[in-house]
Structures are given as structure tokens and as C-alpha cells.
Structures
1.
Amino acid sequence: MKILVTNDDGIYSPGLLCLAKQASRYGEVIVMAPDVEQSSMGQAITSSKPISYKPSPIHFDGLEAYRVNGTPSDCVALGLHLFEDVDLVLSGINLGSNLGNSAWHSGTLSAARQAVLFGVRGIALSVSVGETETDFEALEPFVQDALEEVVGNKEPELLNINFPRSPRGQVVWTNQSVRQYDGKVIAQSDPMGRSHFWFTVIPIEPVDEGSDRWAVKTGKTSITPMVLDLTDNEYLKKINGSS
Ligand code: MN
């Protein structure tokens, strides 16, 4: 199996190294990741300037690794262009959960979605973070369990996996929690008195049982199967008639 590994935290993220190491248990790994952090870039692509890539073997201990001056989705597009017969794209492990509404702006999940657009399976992996540094060595067995559950399968094409900060070992299949948008804009002013704004995410409480948020909140690893099609089929049926 040939696996392209990417992320949105950048080539030097310890989460990327952890994922590349775990991916190498399943086959040939090529790492292609942004040269700087590209979190919350969603599925942006670079269309107004050229993109290039450079070998970036430091930290990757024998794995083929490259850094790209582009977005996570650029990395996937470039990787699938350069390397033939990629079977799977893994994205992460993101430092910070990508639950519920985060799906819309997450660069991590968008990279996996970009793979699916190109006809390749995509799996995004993220871990909740706290005040102390994330211990990826302690997370390794849980990453192994989650990958074991999904890597060998042919479907679904798109998966969003989230680990709690301290997993207890249970892996559950969940739905994406979409209730209301949890983004908040906080207005402040800088030392010169000029207005500026913080775009923040405030978790919605309580969580719905069976959802990705619920799983991670209760110490479980969450796996959410996803699709690309955003069509409102119920409305379409209604407007076009049900015949
Ligand atoms: Mn990130």
C-alpha cells in the first residue's frame, strides 16, 4: 500500500511524525506537508502563484518527506500528481480536535476531503489538546487501534477520526455534531486603540449522544464516516416532486 501523509500544522509537527510512523506499518509512506502552519485554511487551494516542494527528511528517519509552500489541499493535489498509485491519504494528527462544525474550516479534514475529490481514500486524525504538551508516544497504541479498524477496508472513502486527550481505549462510530454554529467573534482593541477581532470557537453544551463531540467528551475515540455531497436531497425531492 502507498500512503501519502499530510497535515495542516506543518512539516515539523510531532503529530505528523507520529502518524507517518504508524502509517509505515501498512506500506510505503510519502510525507508531503505545508512548510508552515496552515490550520483553519479549510480546503483552500493556491491558484495565484506557483507551488514548489523541497526534500525535508529531518525527523522522519528514512521516510520520504517533503515540505510544500502551500495549503494542506495543495499538498494532497501535488502529492497525487507526483506519486503514482497512492492508495490512501492520511492527514494529521492535528493538535486540536476537529469535531462538529470544525469540519468546515479544518485544514486537516479538508486535506482528506481533497484526496476523495481526486478519487483516493482520505482519513483525517486529530487529538484534543490541553495546557500541557501532547504525549504522542502515549497516544500511539490508540492511533494503532483506530487505523487497524479502518485502513484495510475499501469504504467509506472519507473518515474523520478524533482522539480524546486521554483515551480509555473504546473506539466508537459517530455522527458529525451539527447543531448551531459555535463560532464567536470577540471585538477588542489593540494598544493604539484600533479595533480588532478574535475568531474563536466556544463548545456547544450539552453534547448529543452518538455524536463525535459526545465520544471525545466521554474518553472514546470517535470515527465519523463522511460524504462529499452536500445536496439537500429531501428538499430536492420536494421541489422536483417525488415521482
Ligand atoms: Mn491544525
2.
Amino acid sequence: MANIILLGAPGGGKGSQAVRLVKQLNIPQISTGDMLREARAMGTEMGLLAARFMDSGELVPDEVVIGIVKDRLAMEDCANGFILDGFPRTIPQAQALDSVLGELGIALDHVIEIAVPDGQIVPRITGRRSCPQCKRPYHVQFLKPREGNLCDDCGVELIQRSDDTEEAVTVRLASYHKKTAPLVDYYKKAGKLRVVDGVGEMEEISARIFTILA
Ligand code: ADP
Ligand code: ZN
């Protein structure tokens, strides 16, 4: 049983590490970014509303993401633990999460901040690619696929996210510092915060995270 929040700048590796934790711990990844992209792909009203914010790099309004996470945490597969990836991102979201978890009688185990210096964020994000089929992450420089621009597992063409442009990244980083970084203090005060150095090989960073969970 592990209830985990992954905290950190956009492009800092939360998603990649979450995928590894899912395999290892057999608990679901709850990525608000992924859920918003799905809603958008399905063309729901909420998805279309979110799309405008996402493409410009702005945060989607709190009440929208809080609603999504509330519904998701109430689902059966979260009973044995979960990995929150990309939520909470603001103090009001963290407060809402505290009250939802309180209602469900669930305690948070770890808030893991994956720390990456700002200077590394832009190259990380703009070179980022992923498999549209299995969602496996790649990078044109740091995590190349074996062949061309194809997924090692599925053989399909990799894609780039619409908000992984340099313009949107600048906005995303600014909103990270203004709205999300205060959560570091919030969870430090709650005695939950653990910081992991997010610079290095993916395996090394996973190992650092597993040391905390062990
Ligand atoms: P990254 O962490 O690389 O920025 P995500 O996939 O987590 O990528 O998020 C992509 C976008 O989705 C964000 O820029 C924001 O617009 C929206 N989003 C995701 N999670 C949240 C959240 N908790 N609160 C507000 N907006 C969110
Ligand atoms: Zn794939």
C-alpha cells in the first residue's frame, strides 16, 4: 500500500517515473494531464475548455481538475494505493485533496519532489516524444528509440505534445514557480516531503525513489 504524490517542474520526469512505479508497485497512475488530454481527444465539453489553457501552458482551473481527481480516487483500483502525477499543482488543489482523502479515510504516505534545475527543463521538454499507442516516453537526445522515430515496443511513429513548444514551456515554468512550488513548503510542514535529485539516468532516479519507498 502506497499513496504517493510526485511533485516537480514540468518535464522533470514525473510521468516517466510514475510509469516505472506503476509496474513495480502495481497501483494506478493518476495523471491529470493524461486525463485532460483524454477528455480533449474525446471532445467533451470539459476537454475542450481545458485545451485552451493547456496549449498556452496555463493551468486548467482548480475546480475542473479537482472534480476529475475526486471521481478518480473514489474508484476501486485506488484502494491499494495510487501515484498522483501532476496533481496537486496549486495550494487550493492540495487543500481539496486533503479533504477528499480525509473523507475517504486515506492517508498520504509520501510526497516526492523530483528536483531538476530550470536550465534543463526547456531542452528536456522540447525534445520529448511519446508513443501514441503505449504512451512510452522518449527523447530525441536523451532517450532515443532504437530505430528512427518509432516506438521500440509498438513500431508506431512517435508523436510530440502540442504544449511542448518553447513558447508554452516558458509559461508552464513560470506557473510552476508561482503556483506549484509553494506546495514544497506545504508538504514540508506536513512532514511528508522527500526530495529526490532528478538529474541523472532514469534508472538512477528510480533507484533513488525506491530507496524512499523501501
Ligand atoms: P507537465 O507536467 O509536463 O507540464 P502534464 O501532462 O502534467 O505535463 O500537464 C499538461 C497541462 O495540463 C498543464 O500545463 C496544465 O494546463 C494541465 N494540467 C495538468 N494537471 C493540472 C492540474 N493539476 N491543475 C491545473 N492544470 C493541470
Ligand atoms: Zn509504444
